[in-house]
Design brief:
mainly alpha; 0% strand; 3 helices
Length: 85
């Protein structure tokens, strides 16, 4: 069974020979990359955090105005904060 006991979220690989013979990819550069799929886990995890009520209200207002869930906003803010360092 695929990573984490879940069904694969990606298609089966296509043979490199088949892709190389496809005229849409003529002149392309081919590269094989080994990915450690054990480090990629898109499944959401439940967390319990404590925030001041006023901050939580601000987060909810901000997220709602941008059509985001609270979790979606917090995840995006965390990713942006970590990528800016």
């Amino acid at each position: 069974m695929p990573h984490g006991g879940r069904e694969a979220a990606h298609p089966a690989p296509t043979a490199l020979e088949k892709l190389a013979a496809d005229p849409r990819y003529e002149g392309g550069v081919w590269m094989l990359v080994d990915l450690d799929l054990s480090r990629i886990d898109p499944a959401p995890k439940r967390v319990n955090i404590s925030l001041p009520g006023s901050l939580l209200s601000q987060i909810d207002t901000y997220a709602q105005a941008r059509h985001l869930s609270r979790s979606g906003f917090l995840a995006k803010a965390a990713q942006e904060a970590m990528s800016s360092e």
